[in-house]
Amino acid sequence: MQNAIRIIGIDPGLRRMGWGIIETFGNSLRFVASGTVTSDGDMDLASRLCQLHDGLSDIVHSHQPHEAAVEQTFVNKDAVATLKLGQARGIAMLVPARAGLPVAEYAPNAVKKAVIGVGHGEKQQIHMMLKILMPKAEFKGNDAADALAIAICHAHNRAGERMRRVLAAS
């Protein structure tokens, strides 16, 4: 697609970091690829973060996205787990930023609202809507599906932001 914008959505995680790439041209969306970068739970934290960094760097290098979107972290009851997730999220933001991509952040409820129309919903609803929005989309597991949903959320929001800039300039 000529003049299409390629977006990578990233669902941060220390064990599994989901990624999904779409192209947007006007109002149309096209699935490009998706997957999961994993880290070895038997390794120390620094080594696991390196695995995530290297895996995500390979994805960004091979697919050459123009923009990135990352899901914001929610705080859960386990402070140690939240801190580790935050470190993985740092990798999810650092890799595209080091590649020169603008990085947007979206709350989980904003992602769900962009894809299924409401801020609260089940994973199955997201999977179903992904198949409707992009019939050729292939994703294995929730992490890759969530990453595609994040990319779609960004595609919708960047279009709205572009329109706001046009209206403000007129």
Structure description:
The chain has 170 residues and is an alpha/beta fold. The chain is built from five helices and five strands. It has helices spanning 45-63, 79-98, 108-116, 123-133, 142-169; strands at residues 5-11, 16-25, 28-38, 67-71, 103-106. The chain has a five-stranded mixed beta sheet with strand order 3-2-1-4-5.
SSE map:
Blueprint: E1 5-11, E2 16-25, E3 28-38, H1 45-63, E4 67-71, H2 79-98, E5 103-106, H3 108-116, H4 123-133, H5 142-169
Parallel strand pairs: 1-4, 4-5
Antiparallel strand pairs: 1-2, 2-3
Helix pairs in contact: 1-2, 3-5, 4-5
Q: What structural class do you assign from the helix and strand content?
A: alpha/beta
Strand % is 15-25%
Spatial ordering of strands, largest sheet = 3-2-1-4-5
Give the helix proportion (percent range): 40-55%
The helix/strand order is EEEHEHEHHH
Count of DSSP strands: 5
Biggest sheet character: 5 strands, mixed
The DSSP helix count reads: 5
Low-confidence stretches: none
How would the global form be characterised? Answer: globular
**Mean pLDDT, nearest integer?**
89
The separation of the N and C termini measures 29 Å
Radius of gyration: 16 Å
